[in-house]
Amino acid sequence: MLLIPCPFCGPRDESEFICGGPVRPPRPDPAQTSDADWTDWLIQAPNPVGPVQEHWWHARGCGVWLTLWRDTRSHEIVAGASDDG
Amino acid sequence: MRYDVTITPLPTMALFDLKGRAEALRDWAGAALPPFPDRPNSACGDGQGILMWLGPEHWILRADLDREQALEATLRPAEAPPDLSIVRVSDTLAFFRITGPEADAILAIACPLDLHPTRFGPDGASFTRAFGVSALVAQYTEGFDLAVARSYAPMLTRALAEAAG
Amino acid sequence: MTGKRLATGGRIDRNRPLRFTFDGRGYTGFAGDTLASALLANGVRTVARSFKYHRPRGVVTAGVEEPAALVELLGPDASGNRQATTVPLTEGLAARSVNCWPSPRFDLGAVVQLAARAIPAGFYYKTFKWPGWALYAPAIRRAAGLASAPDHPPQGVYETRHAHCDLLVAGAGPAGLMAALVAARAGLRVVLADEGVEAGGALLSRDLLIDGAPARDWVAAVVAELAAAPLVTHLQQASVWGYREHNYLMVTETAPDRPGLTARGWRVRAGHVITATGALERGIAFAENDRPGVMLAGSVQTYLHRNAVAPWRRAVVFTNNNSAYAAAADLAAAGIVVAAIIDSRDQVPEDARARVAGLPLRAGHVVTRVLGRAGLRGVCVASPDGAEARIDCDLLAVSGGWNPSVHLWSQARGTLRYDADLAAFLPDRAVENVTAAGAAAGALGLPDALASGAEVGARVAGLPAPAVPQASDLPYAITPLWQVAHPRGKAFVDLQNDVTVADVELALREGYADVELVKRYTTAGMGLDQGKTGNVTVIGTLAQAQGRAPGEVGTTTFRAPWTPVAFGAIAGQRDGPLALPWRETPVTRWNIDRGAMMYEAGARWRRPGYFPATPDEPMAEAIARECRAVRFGVGVYDGSPLAKFEIKGPDAAAFLDHLYTNRMSSLKPRRGRYGLMLTDDGLILDDGVCFRLDAARWLVSGSTGHAEALHRHLEYQRQTSRPGWRVFITPVTEQWANATICGPQARAVMQALGCDFDLSAQAFPFMQLREGHVAGLPARVLRVSFTGELSYEVNVAPRHLPALWQQVMGAGAPHGILPVGSEANHVLRVEKGFLSLAHEVDGTADPHDLGLGWVMAQAKPDHLGQRAVAIRRAGGGVRRELVGVIPEGDTPLPEGAPLTPGGQRVASEGFITACVRSVVQDRWLGLALLDNGHARHGETAHVRLQGGQVIPVRVAAPIHYDPEGERLRS
User: Of the four listed, C259, C437, C649, C700, which is most buried by Cβ atoms within 10 Å?
Assistant: First the structure.
């Protein structure tokens, strides 16, 4: 049960959140991107052993979609959250 | 009763969901709003209503139901400028008042929030999770107000009764 | 009972006798007894039969580590495989032995012992593999195993609650009490949880002094001070059994302070954790070491000091370390003859010798074999030169050394190191905010434990270590001995799972060299005791056989729970109706009173399926009646749960154009449009209507079951994908309840209700919205239709819906209005070919597949999912497309039934998504997703049922009624 740092509420129980998966690069401009690159962007999600940046939605809280860095080996949250993506 | 508490369902209250920048809201609503709270997840009252700061650019104004019409007339949701949002949400939440010396025990059963006085002050108000569903907790003299979506009111009635024993 | 209890002492109340039954016989114990101590006090030696070999077993320990004395509790709170050592005795308690029939002393299943030599580890799986394990498993499982499952659900009342603290101390022995005291004095919020009936830990089992007074006086003083500290929560009979991420700990309190509460589960979030969990004694593997009467030495002390139980006359003590000398001294002091102290060490430290002055001590000797079956009669002892001698006794108190309880520490992924001096694994590096203290950290004597607790507690509080009370203890010293080789008899390392030294050696011979593999092959440590007394003995045995140090062998993974936990204490109140609670609309009560069949219809909403006219009206007739009302008269449907959002902001129009496949920015106020939202992978997230309320405000509706997913999607896009845009999203699902009045007579009903706006088709056409009053109530009325008929969705505040509903039923009565359930709604939408999520929208279909290519606005430069759909379409390939199906022979088709080419037993080419009894066509018809379906209208396809039956179906357009939509626009 993670303790997730919410930028608005402070540390809160994981049970208040829904995980939105790893943060991907910004959505490319479809007019400037090849089919292959688009498909890669769509499908290739980061899945490292170690720190990964993740989206979490404070669904049972203030409603913020926050990002944080979580070490997949230890669950340690290695950098503070920020609400600006 | 297993715990020394009193659980009272509250009547429907006037609730308005306010979104946008605080200054813009203040400019639009003027004296209709209590002072804005200065800390996230806290509330500020002016005797007529309570303004709860519950999220980034998100407040809920709470008042007695008999003020709903007057507030609607003052807040004018349909005419408000595009950069702020005012929506009447009075019917969305069902409130229960939990008072008594062991009110904190019932809240500890209900939700994962740390409600110790050192962490959740006398003006505390926050969304959280209670009995598995989204909920609003607000400190009240000698206890707490706990609200869930109105559709879950029968569930909360039962859950609180079982928790209190 | 005479002669088996000490005259004085112990933590029992001799004035409160308690009656109980065991295997049907009545006994008496005292308040303060456990079932185990009461059985010992009544001379019951054989308590259970073992898991695999049905060997007689007695009480071995006095706590949660008990491997052998397993019982089944009877009565309303029946539960199986309970350790007799952890069951507090209560008046009227009824228990029976596990795994024996008819009694533990005379067990017919014990014939298996005759063949025991032929049943080593892995025997069953190697032997019973032809023709298949499943053939033999039931019989083997009947013979093996332990308690039977209770035949009724538990009757208990459970609670779960959260707690938050600066410091959680697990264990209220000397170190835990000391740490909690120091932290409490420093003003920290402290939770102290201990699994014992009372605080004190090992101090309750021994005769020690603190500051010159009995240690229990110190315990009482500390407990009193903690009770007076406002920020301290002190729990007894509270096992800290799970350690989860970020210092979230699971605690189960089995004797909560409230009447009527069976158990309470605590979920504690702690800033810091101190594991002051003590140490557990381990055994030594020697022949027949499982016989009733062989006990751990420290546990014997517990029975003497805590329960004043001394059912023995003549004891032998067998040890490899100093701690058993205190046990020997305590036995002698209780008047029991200590026939011999057998110490495997050649050199016994002088302070240990001094502790047992006058008792016969044999250094360098070992116990090789136990004599007696159901009751111990004596032991064989070997001298250093190998000569064996017999010593008669009725108790063998064994100590193989002490294992610091590192389970919680290890659950928190802290690492361990092997300490050769202590011959034990100790906490090494922490991952979470956790510190081990006292015996759990290797401080095995009382002075060290007190100092350790004080030091760690002070460190957490950020203070220098305070002075600690004076105490003395026999210093701990050990020379490890794991097993004593002997040509005959079984030498057990795991009594619960009947695992012997020979099994471990067999595993090694068969190539299972890793400790984790040995565990799985032999099942050592996999019982409910989790191998607390035997695991390190297994590791030591392995190390010895492999010529490695135990530290190189390493431990197996420690997993929660530390002790068995009742499911109820995890679930708490989330049981029965609260496990998956219903949501109710304002007319749910009315529906129930009307006799509706209620069931869940998405997102936990409890809604009417259909309304039987009489209790015995068949479901199909009721549904058909409701469908006819809508098609030919009028019906009313409670559409309140429909997902609804108000969206506003300077960028709301651009936002909606980005999310919907079609353009919403071009809508004029009070007008709406059907739309699809895709995710960026080109698949359908949801469908619904979008209305523009005014220049800046929009009303978005979505599927009932997708309300939360839709909310999540909207906020995700707003906050992470388009953070620069000014958009506000407010869920209003519960602000607007509605009565959807549908059917050719809907307008007449609306007119009868009274509306303050023009209802004519010209003034208020399809896909428009009016705000005004209906029946005097403020309302938002939408002309949308999910049935294909003229339809008014009258939205009011939920507090007004019951009143509106009554008026609608009254105004509709002249037209024969009926309330319509979700079953009829389903029939009506299938007749029209309208989509339903999870039926046609199955997570693979794109809009073109569903015949909705027209909602894919080609002129828009970009919207979510556009590129992915384009790429997939450009790639060609066969698509599964929505079609109507009409079964030949007018027979129903099961939802989900596959369509296969020619009805052959080959890969499917589609499946039935829905099939209903149409009231307008008076026959069965359905919808299906079929490969290349759009090009196959008029063809015959084939449904293949389980069992091979084939139903031919005619493929048609997926609209079976009013294809031009004239009725819904009327």
Answer: C437
Q: Are strands C378-382 and C279-281 parallel, antiparallel or unpaired?
A: unpaired
Q: Write out the residue range of the structural domain in which residue B81 sits.
A: 14-88
What are C818-846's pLDDT values in tens digits? 999 999 999 999 999 998 877 888 878 89
Q: What is the ipTM for the molecules in this complex?
A: 0.98
Domain tally, chain B = 2
Helix extents (H) in C462-609 = 501-509, 515-522, 535-546, 550-553, 567-571, 588-593
Residue numbers in B near C799 (CB within 8 A): 12, 91
Task: Report the alpha-carbon distance of residue C329 to residue C317 in Å, rounded.
Answer: 10
Residues of chain B in contact with residue A64, where contact means CB-CB under 8 angstroms, are: 55-56
Residue A40, domain member (yes or no): no
**Nearest-angstrom CA–CA distance, B125 and B136:** 7
Binding partners of A (≥3 Cβ pairs within 8 A):
B, C
- Helical ranges in A3-74 per DSSP H: 35-43
Domain with residue B31: its CATH number is 3.30.70.1400
pLDDT band at C1 (very low <50, low <70, confident <90, very high): very low
Chain B: which residues have CB within 8 Å of chain A? 40-41, 54-56, 58, 112-113, 126-129, 133-135
**Would you say residue B1 lies in a domain?**
no
Instruction: Tell me the chain B residues in contact with residue C605 when contact means C-beta distances shorter than 8 Å.
Output: 151
C418-426: list long-range contacts, CB under 8 Å, 24+ apart: C418/C549, C418/C550, C418/C551, C420/C549, C420/C551, C421/C478, C422/C476, C422/C478, C423/C478, C423/C479, C423/C480, C423/C540, C423/C550, C424/C279, C424/C536, C425/C536, C425/C550, C425/C551, C425/C555
For residues A11 and A21, the answer to whether their CB atoms sit within 8 Å is no
Token pair recorded at residue C602: 């998405």
B73, B88, B103 - which closes a domain? B88
Which helix (H) or strand (E) segment holds residue C459: the answer is helix C446-461
Indicate the residue among B88, B107, B128 that finishes a domain.
Answer: B88
